[in-house]
Amino acid sequence: MPPTPLVLLSARLLDPVTGAFLPHTALALSGGRIRALGDDREMRALADTSTTVIDLKGAVVTPGLVDGHLHPVSGAELTQGLDLSGCADLDAVRDALAREVSGLAPGAWLHGWGLDPNVFGDRPVGTAAIGPVLDGVPALLQMFDAHSMLASPRALELAGVDGPRTFDQAAEVVCDAAGRPTGLLLEDAACELVERAAPRPTRAERRDQLAGALREMAATGLTGGHAMDAGGESLALYAELDEAGELPMRLRVAPWCQPGTDAEGLRALIEGQGAGGALWRTSGVKLFMDGTIDNGTAWLERPDCHGESTHAFWPDPAVYTHIVGELHRAGVPTATHAIGDAAVRHVLDSVEKARAVGGGANGSPRHRVEHIETVPDDTLRRFAELDVIASMQPTHCCDFTRADHTDNWSRRLGEERAARAWRCRDLWDSGATVVLGSDWPIAPYPPLGVMAGARHRRPSRDLSQDPHGPEQALTALEALQGMTVNAARAAGEEHEAGRLAVGHRADLTVFAESPLGVAATDLPELPVLLTVLDGGTTHRAASM
């Protein structure tokens, strides 16, 4: 028999399917898999002198938690700047920027992230509202949605951006009536105009930033993530960490397919499927059907209160439909960012057309819709009918909207559509597979916070506030399933992941108590005692 490198004793093994504890009290791990389940005596018998034996003293073991949507590479770089996510008004933003400016070397760029558009209230989002604090300072301030940013006048000058631009996809350099840029850049194509002028971290810095971020994720109980990264170095960085034995999470990576992708580019995406290493692989393709509601670039069936969010991200949505069909026939699953109701409907229509033509290579791939922030009733049932995964980020609802609908997102949509915010409960009850994630760096990655938000739907900074759409809350067990069994199904890995079963992956998360028995508002503080990936520990609390 192969060696057994790790044995866990005196455990309570929580089945995420039933919510009950298994009759076993111990498990042995070997070859990256769960070798055996049994009692302490039986598992001790499988250990030898090379085995690490850990007495869990009654701690609770679940399958490893998986974030269904995150951006490790871009997030690791973006979050190196000034964190503005805690600023609740413009005065707080100005104060934070002033402190940062005071420590900058002459000519250095200021990078900020997490800026909430709600701080602008009824004022237009632009650098004019921030005042003179950025005078002469090249600065890029990412809005919280990472689909827009503010560029200071000096940054625009250095980038040579002095007026409107035309793009091949939905993007905009927002300008005033005189044609002068306000500083607001919408979507990647516009943001990249200025980002190219700013200094970039070195390859070594990017590698270290990524490794550090992934280690911190593992310490919160994450064993895996569905990575939606598209940066040119993303795959190379994952490979480098994996080969060095420094990849502390199992990653399923979906490269991007943008408008303008030709037949050769599509062929490269198809041929690249399955590439990877021991702990990461390319599986699926990420597409965008719209932008965000907060910056007016979502695709809605009716315009928002500003007359915006009326167009798809793809200039010709029929081209998107064609590409989904080609990927489906090649057996490649897609994950499409679709926030507005029109965007979600178009994705579902496209999947339906692709499936009608016939199954893909090696069976029909399982497609996904990412975000799904507002949809009408007639859309719900189609997820289950088409076997389309509903990928949701409940903390976005918690932290970026308000129960009284006074936030920017709700005001743009109006009462009818704001009342359909993040319909996790309705999608679940309609039979859809709902997988939960953070969309980090848009929202914090600790999985207990994501699960808690799915249950309480309250602002994490002030849990005394009313929940937004409490009728859409998930139960404790459903929230756990959203990051275990459902995450496995979303990846097509239900045969080997998401369960505590012999032969399944040895990816485990160990808690001081059962996450099902802790109140939703207290769940983020539940101690994570041990994180196990591929049979080895990536996090071990001092008490263990």
UniProtKB/TrEMBL annotation:
Residues 53-537 form the Amidohydrolase domain. SUPFAM superfamilies: Composite domain of metallo-dependent hydrolases, Metallo-dependent hydrolases. GO terms for molecular function: hydrolase activity, acting on carbon-nitrogen (but not peptide) bonds. It comes from the Bacteria. Gene3D superfamilies: 3.10.310.70, Metal-dependent hydrolases, Urease, subunit C, domain 1. This is Amidohydrolase 3 domain-containing protein. It comes from Streptomyces formicae. The lineage of its organism: Bacteria, Bacillati, Actinomycetota, Actinomycetes, Kitasatosporales.
